[in-house]
Design goal:
Elements lengths: L1 H32 L6 H22 L1 H4 L2 H23 L8 H21 L2 H21 L5 H31 L24 E4 L2 E4 H23 L1 H11 L1 H6 L4 H23 L14 H11 L4 H20 L1 H5 L4 H9 L3 H18 L10 H4 L1
Amino acid sequence: MLAGLLDALLGGISIGTVLLIAALGLAIVFGLMGVINLAHGELMMLGAYTTFVVQNGFRLLGEPWFEVYIIFALPIAFLVAALVGLILERGVIRFLYGRPLETLLATWGVSLILQQFIRSVNWVMVINIAVFCLLFFGALKILSRRADFARIRGWAIAIILPLSLGIALTTGSFLSELYKPTITQLWFGAQGVSVTAPGWLRGGVPVAGSQLSYVRLFIIGLTILCVIGIYLFLQKSPWGLRIRAVMQNRSMSACLGIPTQKVDALTFALGSGLAGVAGCAISLLGSVSPNTGQNYIVDAFMVVVVGGVGKLTGTIVAALTIGTVNYVLGSGILALMFASVQPLAAFFSFFATTSMAKVMVFALIIAFLQVRPGGIFPQKGRTIDA
């Protein structure tokens, strides 16, 4: 019985660290910027698929290189997710600051686009996008050198946009007919893909009759490094100081010469990059599909809200608590422990499944927020009055 409880606690802590690394990026984007980013789960999904691609690339190089692919996959997943997040912030989010409902709807739409992109992407789609971007943005760049560009900008976009789109689609259609089926084959499809852990991450460490896998230990260590890195960046670096200043008072920060738009872009890219790292870690735990991010986005928001918006310490405590409670309830160990007390045994048996345990956790979170609506560590200072 004691060994089973210890196994459940260890499993809960490992699940909590996975939840924490998934919530870190969201804690920055939602907590520091106030942006409700429903595409955060899809940024995690992109990080997971990036890990899959890097894994396949290193597999072609041979066995010695395959053992270290995860070391290269982590920064590449960070950069890919950060780049997509930067494009999202510059192209969509920056026009919606201070309008949370519109931000929520826009990022939800982006999440659906990213899911469908992963299901449908092939060489034809990549060529279409590349040709369109080259023609459209290249033409705008050339026209921007004109002195009267501000006056003709609307007309230029109205003419260049359909022309670029038509040429891109025609090019893709021509190449697909010429090289079918080579460039029309889907890269990933709707089915899940598997990421294989390197040999040194297989197996585990025996702990009091149970086993803690090396993959879980790796994710715990990765989470600790991410938390330390984020803390040092926000507290010790010049850009971290600028981020905290803009969070406290945007108008005063702008008056003091802080480039608030660059700070917004950097903050969103940083949070998105952390989502990519989370996706890389999550890919080691099971198969990856276009719906992978949807399994974590709600729990990640709950972690940020319960911990206290913008509070790194609260995010850590909330993630470990929610993950542990969820896993312990779903494991059924409490029903065994209280088998002699029939009402409690029946109660815990009813919630001894993954789905019902999550329902119970959400009910506990709702009850907790009734008592402390600001979370474990509520905000103080100017941001709470804004």
